[in-house]
C-alpha cells in the first residue's frame, strides 16, 4: 500500500511538473490552449491564452459568447463561420483573427483546432491552440511594405538597376536599365554585361574580383544593339539577396560629353588667355594666384611659377587698403563685376582693372593705360583750352549739318550776337536764323545754303559771305561768315565748320577811312590851292613888284626915285621872307623836328597870340622830353587845328594850352572862353564832309592810339582834350 501511495504521489508530482513545463513553454512561445465542451458549453483556457487576451489567468469562466465578445467586431462573422463549418464537416481548421486586448489594443491571433466525435459520430468537444502572431504579422506587413517600396523605387528609379545571378545573368531590370541598355526587358533578361561590351573588353576578371570583394564601383561603356555607346557609372553589391547581386548604373554620357567639351573649352580659353593682349590672372577663394597668363608676368614683375599658389596681399602688400583691396572684396562679397582705374606706383603705371567673381574665386583682366591716360589728360587739357577759346571768343563758332539743315554746335557768343542760345537755335533751326537776316541779304544767304546742298565731291563754295543781322538792342550789324566744308570718306560734304564775326565796326572804320581819304585828298587840294594862291597872289605879286622896281632903277640909277624904289624892294623882300616862313611853318615847323613838341607848341602859341590878339597862356613842363615823332606830330597838328578853330570861330578873349606828361600818359588840353558850339552837330557835319576839323583831330588821335574828347556848348567855350597812353607816347630817338 505504501508503494502504491508513493507511486501515486510521484505520478501526481510528474503531472504537475509536466503541466508547469507546458505552461512555461506556452508562455515562452505565446501559445495558449483551449477546450470547448460542446455538450455543457464550458470553455477552458490555459493561463497563456488568458494572457494573450489581456486577462488574468482563470479570472472568469469562459463561454462561447464571452470568447466571441473578445474578437474584433469585423472578425466575428469569420470566427463564427469557421466554428460552424468545423461543427458540420468535422474537419480540423486554422484561421487568424484580431483579439481585443484589455488595454484596448488588438492582438493578431492564429487559432488551430479540431473536432472530437462520440461513438455516434456526433461532435462533443472542440480543442486546439492559439498563438499570438502580432509581431510576426507586423514583421510580415513591414516586409511586404518594404518589398512594395523597393519595387516602387526599383521601377521608378532614374538610374538603371540590374539584379544578376551568380553567373552574371540578368534576372531583373528596371525600366531605366532597359532604356540605358537600349533593349526591351524581355530581351534583356538572361543576358550579361559581356553581351554589351565593346570589342576587346573582357568582363571575366572584373566579375571574379566583384564576387571576391563583395562590391565594386567604377565606369564602363555600354555598346547598345543600335551601335550607340553610353558612358555609365556603376556601383554593385554582392548577395543583397541570397544568390542575387544588385548593380546600380547611371547614364553619364552627356556629363562625359560636357566634361570633354569643358576640357576642350578650357583648353581653348587657356589658348585665348595666352594670346590676348590684356594681362590676366585668377585668384582662388583664399586670394591665391591660380592662373597667370604670360602678358601679366612682365607687368607684375614676377613669373607665373613664382606667384602661383601665393597670396596676392602678401606678395603685393602695397595694394592692401587701396582700390584693389576694396573693389576685389566687393566683387566677391556682392557677386558683381567691378571696373576701376588706379595709379599703382609699385608697378610704375596706371591700370584699368576688370574683375569678375566666379565659383572658383575672382578673374582679373588688367591693362596698363599709363600712356592712354597721359594722352587723355593731354586731350582733356587741350579740349579745356579749346573750350575756353570757344567760350571766350567774341565770334560765333558753329558746325552746320548740311543734311539736316540744323546747327550741331554754336559757341556761347551766339546769344550776345543773335540774342538766343544754342538750345533755342537747335530747336528753331535755319528758319529761326533767317528771321534775323536783313531782307536785302536773304537771297544771297539762301543761295549759299542751296549751294551747300548741291555740293559734290571735289566741288568748292564761296568760303566767306557778309550779311546783316538784327542784333537785340543794337539794330542791324554786319557779320562776316567764313566756313570750311567737312567731307566724309567718300568726299561728300556733310557739314560746314565756320565762324561768324561782327565786322560792323570794321566796315564803319573802313568807310570812315575812305571818307577821310576823300576828305584828305580834298584838303590837300584845298591846301595846294591855298599855297598856290599865297605863291601867286602874295609872293608872286611881291616878286613882280620887286622886278618892276629893279628894272626902273636899272633904267635910271641916278634918278632921285631910285633910292625910294630900292627901299620899297627891301620892304617887299622882308614881307616875302615872312610869308615864306609862315608857309613853311604851316607845312612842317622845323622846331618840331629840331627841339621837340614843347618848343614847337610854345612858338606856335606865341605867334597865335600875336595874330589873334587873344590873351593866351601856354603851360608845359620843360623836362617833358622827346616822344615818338608820330605822337609829337599828332599833338602839334591837333593843337594847331584847335587854335585855328578858335581864331576862326570862337571869338575868345582867353585861350589856355596845357601839355602834361604824367604817370598814365600824355595829356594835351586846348581851352577857350569863346562862343562854343554843338559837338554832335559839328561831328555830323564832319561825317557828312562839310568840315575836317573835328573828325580830323579824332582820326589823328586814333592813329597814335590816343583819344580826343571835345567838350563844348553854345556860350560856354570849348575844351579839346587829347590823351595818349604812356606806353604809346614812348620816348623819341
UniProtKB/TrEMBL annotation:
Residue ranges occupied by any Histidine kinase domain in the UniProt entry: 637-728
SUPFAM superfamilies per record: ATPase domain of HSP90 chaperone/DNA topoisomerase II/histidine kinase, PYP-like sensor domain (PAS domain)
Cellular component annotations (GO), alphabetically ordered: membrane
GO molecular function, a single term: phosphorelay sensor kinase activity
Domain PAC, residue spans: 93-145, 463-515
PAS domain sequence ranges: 18-90, 146-199, 265-316, 382-456
Signal peptide range: none
Assigned keywords, A-Z: Kinase, Transferase, Two-component regulatory system
Top-rank taxon, per record: Bacteria
UniProt xrefs under NCBIfam families: sensory_box
Protein name: PAS domain S-box protein
Organism of origin: Singulisphaera sp. Ch08
Amino acid at each position: 500500500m505504501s508503494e502504491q501511495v508513493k507511486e501515486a504521489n510521484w505520478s501526481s508530482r510528474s503531472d504537475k511538473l509536466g503541466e508547469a513545463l507546458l505552461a512555461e513553454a506556452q508562455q515562452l512561445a505565446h501559445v495558449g490552449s483551449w477546450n470547448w465542451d460542446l455538450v455543457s458549453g464550458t470553455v477552458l483556457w490555459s493561463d497563456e491564452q488568458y494572457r494573450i487576451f489581456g486577462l488574468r489567468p482563470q479570472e472568469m469562466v469562459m463561454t462561447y459568447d464571452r470568447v466571441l465578445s473578445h474578437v474584433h467586431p469585423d472578425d466575428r462573422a469569420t470566427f463564427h463561420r469557421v466554428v460552424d463549418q468545423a461543427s458540420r464537416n468535422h474537419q480540423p481548421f486554422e484561421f487568424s483573427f484580431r483579439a481585443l486586448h484589455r488595454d484596448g489594443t488588438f492582438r493578431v491571433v492564429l487559432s488551430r483546432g479540431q473536432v472530437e466525435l462520440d461513438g455516434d459520430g456526433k461532435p462533443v468537444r472542440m480543442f486546439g491552440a492559439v498563438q499570438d502572431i502580432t509581431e510576426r504579422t507586423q514583421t510580415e506587413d513591414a516586409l511586404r511594405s518594404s518589398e512594395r517600396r523597393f519595387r516602387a523605387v526599383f521601377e521608378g528609379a532614374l538610374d538603371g538597376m540590374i539584379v544578376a545571378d551568380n553567373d552574371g545573368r540578368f534576372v531583373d531590370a528596371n525600366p531605366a536599365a532597359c532604356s540605358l541598355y537600349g533593349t526591351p526587358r524581355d530581351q534583356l533578361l538572361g543576358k550579361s554585361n559581356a553581351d554589351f561590351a565593346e570589342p576587346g573588353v573582357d568582363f571575366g576578371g572584373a566579375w571574379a574580383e566583384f564576387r571576391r570583394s563583395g562590391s565594386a564601383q567604377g565606369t564602363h561603356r555600354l555598346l547598345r544593339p543600335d551601335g550607340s555607346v553610353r558612358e555609365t557609372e556603376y556601383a554593385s553589391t554582392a548577395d543583397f539577396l541570397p544568390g542575387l547581386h544588385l548593380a546600380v548604373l547611371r547614364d553619364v554620357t552627356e556629363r562625359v560629353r560636357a566634361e570633354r567639351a569643358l576640357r576642350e573649352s578650357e583648353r581653348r580659353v587657356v589658348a585665348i588667355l595666352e594670346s590676348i593682349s590684356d594681362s590676366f590672372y585668377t585668384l582662388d577663394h583664399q586670394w591665391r594666384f591660380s592662373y597667370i597668363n604670360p602678358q601679366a608676368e612682365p607687368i607684375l614683375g614676377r613669373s607665373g611659377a613664382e606667384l602661383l599658389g601665393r597670396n596676392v596681399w602678401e606678395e603685393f602688400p602695397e595694394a592692401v587698403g587701396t582700390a584693389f583691396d576694396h573693389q576685389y572684396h566687393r566683387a566677391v562679397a556682392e557677386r558683381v563685376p567691378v571696373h576701376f582705374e588706379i595709379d599703382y606706383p609699385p608697378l610704375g603705371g596706371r591700370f584699368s582693372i576688370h574683375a569678375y567673381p566666379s565659383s572658383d574665386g575672382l578673374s582679373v583682366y588688367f591693362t596698363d593705360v599709363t600712356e592712354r591716360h597721359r594722352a587723355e589728360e593731354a586731350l582733356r587739357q587741350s579740349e579745356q583750352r579749346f573750350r575756353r577759346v570757344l567760350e571766350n571768343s567774341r565770334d560765333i563758332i558753329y558746325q552746320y549739318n548740311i543734311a539736316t539743315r540744323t546747327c550741331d554746335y554754336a559757341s556761347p557768343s551766339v546769344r550776345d550776337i543773335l540774342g538766343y542760345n544754342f538750345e533755342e537755335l537747335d530747336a528753331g533751326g535755319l528758319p529761326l536764323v533767317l528771321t534775323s537776316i536783313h531782307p536785302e541779304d536773304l537771297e544771297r544767304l539762301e543761295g549759299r545754303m542751296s549751294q551747300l546742298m548741291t555740293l559734290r565731291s571735289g566741288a568748292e563754295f564761296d568760303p566767306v559771305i557778309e550779311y546783316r543781322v538784327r542784333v537785340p538792342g543794337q539794330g542791324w550789324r554786319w557779320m562776316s561768315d567764313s566756313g570750311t566744308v567737312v567731307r566724309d570718306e567718300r568726299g561728300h560734304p556733310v557739314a560746314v565748320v565756320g565762324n561768324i564775326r561782327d565786322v560792323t565796326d570794321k566796315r564803319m572804320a573802313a568807310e570812315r577811312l575812305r571818307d577821310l581819304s576823300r576828305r584828305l585828298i580834298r584838303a590837300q587840294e584845298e591846301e595846294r590851292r591855298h599855297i598856290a594862291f599865297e605863291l601867286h597872289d602874295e609872293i608872286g605879286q611881291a616878286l613882280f613888284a620887286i622886278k618892276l622896281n629893279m628894272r626902273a632903277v636899272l633904267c635910271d640909277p641916278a634918278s632921285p626915285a631910285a633910292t625910294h624904289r630900292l627901299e620899297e624892294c627891301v620892304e617887299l623882300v622882308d614881307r616875302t621872307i615872312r610869308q615864306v616862313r609862315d608857309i613853311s611853318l604851316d607845312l612842317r615847323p622845323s622846331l618840331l623836328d629840331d627841339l621837340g613838341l614843347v618848343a614847337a607848341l610854345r612858338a606856335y602859341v606865341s605867334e597865335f597870340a600875336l595874330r589873334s590878339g587873344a590873351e593866351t597862356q601856354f603851360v608845359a613842363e620843360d623836362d617833358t622830353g622827346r616822344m615818338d615823332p608820330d605822337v609829337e606830330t599828332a599833338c602839334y597838328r591837333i593843337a594847331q587845328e584847335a587854335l585855328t578853330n578858335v581864331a576862326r570861330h570862337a571869338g575868345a578873349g582867353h585861350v589856355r594850352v596845357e601839355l602834361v606828361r604824367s604817370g598814365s600818359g600824355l595829356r594835351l588840353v586846348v581851352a577857350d572862353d569863346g562862343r562854343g558850339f554843338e559837338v554832335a552837330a559839328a561831328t555830323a557835319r564832319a561825317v557828312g564832309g562839310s568840315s575836317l576839323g573835328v573828325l580830323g583831330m579824332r582820326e589823328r588821335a586814333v592813329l597814335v592810339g590816343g583819344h580826343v574828347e571835345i567838350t563844348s556848348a553854345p556860350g560856354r567855350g570849348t575844351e579839346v582834350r587829347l590823351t595818349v597812353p604812356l606806353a604809346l607816347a614812348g620816348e623819341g630817338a
